[in-house]
Every structure is written in structure tokens, then in C-alpha cells.
User: What shape does this take?
Amino acid sequence: MKFAICNEIFQGWNIQDTLEYAAKSGYDAVEIVPFTIAKCVGDIPADERRKIRDAAARNGIGISGIHWVLAQTEGLHLAHPESAVRARTSAYLCDLVDFCADLGGRFMVFGSPNQRATTGGLTREQATRHYVEGLANVAPHAAGHGVTILVEALPKGQCDVVQTLDEAASIVREIDSPGVRTMFDTHNAVDETEPHAVLLDKIVAALGSNGLCEAP
Assistant: This one.
């Protein structure tokens, strides 16, 4: 088992210092939140991405990937009733895939409840269809860059689109691409009714490569 830590908890630290400290603390990898580096991922130049990747290699630590991928963005929503908004969001997700790959990351955790929840009068079913279609559009780009987008099930108190691991696994099976899988987050499984071991057994085929679990 390998352990990674999110750079978001190192508020006020530059990413190089974070990587060095995480490595010295025994972690195998760091998970990066894009907005801790720039509000828009497109504003992170190639040389900055290279420096981050080089710093990780220099400290003997990996970069597992990115999460909070749409947090603090403006005007993006993958389940929005307007097709132009959904298209813009899909394009930005492709930019995020590029960023993740540039860092050497393999996983892109899609939580971001505010950018996938029902809005504009849509039903939960309609919003979910938009969400699935958007992921399917981005999946080939992700797979082509060796990045896996992980559909993160969120509890009812956070979001009404993809609330259970069964729903997440169903989406993975429908899209049927190596670019889209799911994950298991103990914190976000609070509404699940089955034991964690049972849940993992049920969705193991839909998990990211080698499985990915998160705990608060």
C-alpha cells in the first residue's frame, strides 16, 4: 500500500517545500489541488509544471494526481442545462488532464460538487445524464494521456449527482473507457448502508488502477 497526502493542507507553503517535507515524512506521493498554484490551470506555464515534476523526482516522491479539479473556477458546470457551459467545462477538464499528465500524475479525482449538482431546474436524472455525457467526451483525451478520471461518489449533504458507489460504478461501466474509473473515500461513504469491505468487493472492477482509497 502506498500513501499520498494533499498539498492543500500545507497552506502558505510553496510546492517545492511541500514535496520535500512530504518525502521526509515518509509519504510516497503528493496529491495536488490546482487552485493552490493558480486559479486557472491554463495559467500554469510549461516551465512551472516541469519544475514541480523535477522537484518531486529530486525528492524521491511521486505526484499521484490532482483533485478539487473545478473548485474555485467560474462559469464551469458539467451538468448545466446550457450546452455551451457543458462544452466549456469539458474543454477545461481536458486542460486539467494535460496538467496532471505534465506533472507525472495518473489520477484526477472528480469531486467538485458545485460543478456537477442539479441546477437550472433540471431533474437529478437529467443532470446526471449531462454529467455522464461530459465525462464520456473527456474520456478519450484522458486515456490518451495516461490519466484516469475518478468519479467520486458524494454524500447527500454535498451533492445530488452520483451519491453512491453503485451509481459511480454504473457510470464507469457505461462509459467503458480506461480514462474513467471510480474511487473509494471513507469520508464520503457516510450514507452507504453496506460495510466498507462489501462495497469495495462490489466495485473493485470499477476502481482506478490498483485501487484508490481516501481517508480524512
